Amino acid sequence: MRPGVASALASLILANADSHASPRWQQQPPLLGGVFEYDLSYLQHLPLAEAWEHLHAVVAIAGIVNRDSPRLFAPFTAPDTQADARWRSYLTRPGRWLGNTSFVPVAGCRKGCIEQLVHTFRSSLRGAVVYDTAVPATSNVASTIAGVESVVPVLANGTLYAPLVASKMLPVVENLRGKFTGERSGSAKCDAYLWAVDKYLKTGRANASFLPNYVDAWVTTRVDTFDAPRNINLTLSTTMLTNHDYFIAHRGFFWDLAVFSDEEPSDDPGSPLGLDRRTVETILGTYSSSFRCI
Questions:
Q1: For the chain, first and last CA: distance in Å?
Q2: Which secondary-structure segment (H or E) carries 226?
Q3: pTM exceeds 0.90 for this model
C-alpha cells in the first residue's frame, strides 16, 4: 500500500443509540452480520484544514467502534489509488473474512454528515476531546485521548464544534484549549506531550507498545508543501491521518517531535534547542522495554 494511504479496513482487521442527540437524526439499529459505511470521498472537495477536521473525527470513531468487531467502514480514496475498494473486493469474496458481510450506508449520508455518524454510534462514544489550533500538537494528544477515553476529537471553533459540541450532542470529556503555554518546558508543544505522558503513559492508560509518530495539525497550515526542502506535495493522504484509527483502537500514544538534538523544529521555532529530542526520550523511556515505534 502506498505511504500515507491507510486502508479504511485496517481497524476492522482488529477482529470487532442511548442517544443524547437531537431526534432529527435517523435511528439505525445495530446490524447483524453487517457493517455501516461512511463515504469520505467528499473530503477531496474541502479545504485541507476542514478536511482534516472531518477525517480526524471519523478515523477516531472507526478506531473506537471497530475495536472488538467490524462495525464501520469509512473508505477514503486518494486520487492516485483505489486501495479501499481493492481490499473490500478481496476480503468480501466467498470464503474470505468478510465474505458474508453486507455494507449499509449510514442513513442520509451521501456527501458527509458526521452528526448522523455520531448518532449512529452514540452508545459507544463517551463524548468529545476539544483540541486547539494555537497548539497544533494537541491534535495528536487528542488522538491519544480518543483511544483511551473513547471520545471524538473536535477542533475548537472548527466546523464540527457547533454541531457536535455546542449542540450538546457530545459532552466535553477533555478540553485542551488554552491548556498549554510553555510554562513547564519552554514550549507549549512539548508541554502538551509531557502532560499526556504523565496522564496516559505513566499511568498505563495508553498502550506503550504503540507509539505512532505522525504529523499533527500544524501541517494544515502548509498550503503548498508538507516539507519544502524535499518538495513533497501536501495532500490529505500524505498527512497519514488515515492511519490513526488502528492506533486509536489499540489506545496508542501519538507524537510528532524532532529527534535530532541540534535541529530546530520547523513547527516550533524559538523553542529550546534539543527540547524536542529530550521530550522524545521521555516518551520512549517511560516503558522502554515495551515500545514499538511506527
A1: 15
A2: strand 225-227
A3: no
